Structures are given as structure tokens and as C-alpha cells.
TrEMBL record:
Residues 20-39 are annotated as: Disordered. One of its GO terms (biological process) is methylation. One of its GO terms (molecular function) is metal ion binding. Residues 195-327 form the SET domain. Pfam families: SET. It comes from the Eukaryota. This is Uncharacterized protein. Residues 24-33 have a biased composition (Basic and acidic residues). GO terms for cellular component: chromosome. Keywords: Chromosome, Metal-binding, Methyltransferase, S-adenosyl-L-methionine, Transferase, Zinc. InterPro entries: H3K9_Histone-Lys_N-MTase, Post-SET_dom, SET_dom, SET_dom_sf. It is found in: Chromosome.
Length: 358
């Protein structure tokens, strides 16, 4: 391996008193006008370090005391809010099990289409990039897809978009093709996490999501946000995640949601991967007894795809772990693959985590 020529130059080092000093190479006696300024160095570090993943940060922090200190305070700031300020309340990491300060992932408050680099092609006129509701208006006379209520939410509302029949099902809210604004009371799942939460380390389960306040039955908690994948890509990733999980140091968050017709046939399949990009819901663990969260596929009027939303299925006390059922536990087709043990603690626990064979 070839080596880069080494230069004798100024290095920023810690003088032992918490301040940065410049230490000079043996041949360099006089300060030069182009010597690095320690304050510039710190400012650059403050700009660059937040872009680093935790493994890169750990590596950089080994290079000098000043970067070690900067990385340490960055780590503390990260552990104080997993949501990076995207949510109404900060979501701290709490760990009394081992010494991991936080889990690294990218934050997306709502679901993301994997690829966004598209443009309309074949429109009738250059200005016809209109919403579906306008298209429907034009096609069928006076028909409007969204509502035009004055006040949609609240008791006694007759907004046609409102339907939350029962938990564990499909529900609807106002959406992009409605006349109302984002403050409308019939958009409760559209402004991010609505309650105080924290992420805590749980023996045997990794991180878990916990209530940091009393959450009332039927209260909206959060959406399951992540990258929306094609089924082919979901299958490819699942294979990769299974391989990585066998090392015991990797936890994936790829969820497959199927909507069924009354006939029992699946009519919609959503593959949401929160492993790399997601929100706090990626930390919700499985419980064999169904846990304390219900899942609802929420359709917003005029939006193309529904979103998976979590509501409290009963009152949830502060400090209680949030959980739901990942699905049925089925024997893995590949008898070679290592089963994942379940530590949900429910009396009905099957001992094994449900596996998704996409
Ligand atoms: C969506 S993630 C949940 C957050 C995860 N615990 C973490 O640390 O990031 C799903 C993974 O969490 C772990 N997990 C979830 N529920 C569990 C349970 N009841 N017992 C053991 N591990 C569980 C498994 O590794 C699973 O693949």
C-alpha cells in the first residue's frame, strides 16, 4: 500500500485546560499567517459532525481530544431527541441496560415515496398539472372529491370525510383535495406524533417505545413512517435483513400491510421500511397478546395511498411500553434460519417473533 508523504504542520490539541492549542512541528518555530485557527476548527467540526452516522462519529472522535469532546456533546444532544425537532415534543433515549446512547437512523415524519424524480408527461396543456379532484370536477360536471365544510372536526360534525368506525380497520380523514386547511379537526393523524414519548432500552428486545404521559384509549399516537417500497425491493431487502439479523446485532423495521376485501383476497399491499429512514414508530416492539396499540389504515381524501396509524387500544399509563402484534407466528420455511426469540412477556407469548416472508 502506498503512503502519503507526511508534512510537519500545526495540529489542534487540547492543552489540558479545555482550550484548544496549536502544537507546532519541530521545524516550525514562528506562527504563520495561514496557521489554522482553533476556533475555525471547532466551528467546522460543529458544522460537519452532525452529518455523520454514529459509527463515523465514533471513528472521528478518536482522532484528537477536541473532536472527542465535540462528538461527546453531539452524542448527548442526539440522545435528547430522536425526532431531530421534527415532532411537537422531543423524544429522548433512555438507557439503563447498556451503554448505547442512541440508535442512528434518518428521520422522516411521514411515509416517503422511494423515488420522487418524476414529472408529468402527456398533459393536455402545460398548465394541466392539477389535482385529482380538479380532474374529477372536469370529468363529471359538479362532482367534488373532497369536502367543503366550514368546520370539519368536533362533535356533531357531518363532514363526509370523517369515519373512524372502530379501531383495527380502515378510516378516512380530510386530505389534499378538501377545501379545509391543515388545522382542520378532521386531520388528527396528519401533524405528527401527538403525545409525549421516550425510547428506552429493554433487555432482550433492543430499543422500545414508551409512553411519557398518560395516553387515553382511542387517542392517536403516531404513524408508521418509512420508505414505501415495491414488493420486489421489499423482498430483496428482507433477504438482506434476515442475513444481517443472523449476526444478532441488527434489527430491521420492514412492515408489510395488506388490506383485504370482504372475500378475503388482498387488494392492497404496502411495504413500509423504517430501517434506514423512519419515525419513532420504528421502535415499537411486538407483543403476542396484541399489545396496547391498534392499527388503522388511514385514507386522506384525495391522497393516493393510505398511511398506517397507531391509536391507543386502552388507557396507557406513563412509562408503559407501547406494543402491537406484528402478525401471526408461522414456522419459517427455511429451517436453517435462526428463529428470533420473543421477549414480550405476555402470558400468551409463543416464544418466537412473527416472521414476514414477503
Ligand atoms: C421494528 S423493530 C423494533 C425496535 C427494535 N427493538 C430496535 O431496537 O430498533 C423490530 C425488531 O425489534 C426486535 N423485537 C421486537 N419485538 C420483540 C420482542 N417481543 N421480543 C424480542 N425482540 C423484539 C426484533 O429484533 C425485531 O426484528
Amino acid at each position: 500500500m502506498s503512503q502519503l508523504p507526511t508534512k510537519k504542520c500545526c495540529r489542534a490539541v487540547d492543552g489540558g485546560n479545555g482550550n484548544l492549542q496549536l502544537r507546532r512541528g519541530a521545524e516550525e518555530q514562528e506562527p504563520r499567517a495561514d496557521s489554522p485557527n482553533p476556533n475555525d476548527f471547532i466551528r467546522s467540526a460543529e458544522l460537519v459532525l452532525p452529518w455523520l452516522a454514529s459509527s463515523e462519529l465514533a471513528y472521528v472522535s478518536l482522532t484528537c481530544k477536541a473532536l472527542h469532546r465535540a462528538a461527546k456533546s453531539l452524542t448527548l444532544r442526539r440522545s435528547l431527541d430522536a425526532s431531530r425537532g421534527f415532532e411537537k415534543f422531543p423524544v429522548p433515549f433512555v438507557n439503563s441496560v447498556d451503554d448505547l446512547p442512541y440508535a442512528y437512523f434518518l428521520y422522516g415524519p411521514s411515509q416517503l415515496l422511494h423515488s420522487l424524480d418524476r414529472q408529468p408527461w402527456g398533459s393536455v396543456s402545460p398548465h394541466s398539472a392539477v389535482t385529482n379532484s380538479h380532474m374529477a370536477d372536469a370529468a363529471s360536471g359538479d362532482v367534488r372529491v373532497g369536502c367543503d365544510c366550514e368546520r370539519c372536526g368536533g362533535g356533531g360534525s357531518s363532514c363526509p370525510c370523517l369515519s373512524l368506525e372502530g379501531l383495527d380497520g380502515v378510516a378516512t380523514e380530510c386530505g389534499p383535495s378538501c377545501g379545509c386547511e391543515s388545522e382542520c379537526g378532521n386531520r388528527i393523524t396528519q401533524s405528527g406524533v401527538s403525545v409525549k414519548l421516550k425510547i428506552a432500552r429493554v433487555r432482550g428486545k433492543g430499543w422500545g417505545l414508551f409512553a411519557d404521559q398518560l395516553i387515553r384509549e382511542r387517542q392517536f399516537v403516531c404513524e408508521y413512517a418509512g420508505e414505501l417500497l415495491t414488493t420486489k425491493e421489499a423482498q430483496r431487502r428482507q433477504q438482506e435483513y434476515d442475513r444481517l439479523s443472523s449476526t444478532g446485532h441488527f434489527s430491521s423495521a420492514l412492515l408489510v400491510v395488506r388490506e383485504h376485501l370482504p372475500s378475503g383476497k388482498a387488494c392492497l399491499r404496502l411495504n413500509i421500511d423504517a430501517t434506514r429512514v423512519g419515525n419513532v414508530a420504528r421502535f415499537i416492539n411486538h407483543s403476542c397478546d396484541g399489545g396496547n396499540l391498534s392499527t388503522v389504515l388511514m385514507r386522506s381524501t384525495g391522497a393516493l395511498l393510505p398511511r398506517l396509524c397507531f391509536f391507543a387500544s386502552r388507557n396507557i399509563a406513563r412509562d408503559e411500553e407501547l406494543s402491537f402484534s406484528y402478525g401471526e407466528t408461522r414456522p419459517r420455511p427455511d429451517s436453517e434460519s435462526r428463529p428470533c426469540f420473543c421477549f414480550c412477556g405476555a402470558s400468551s407469548c409463543s416464544g418466537t417473533l412473527p416472521s414476514e416472508h414477503t
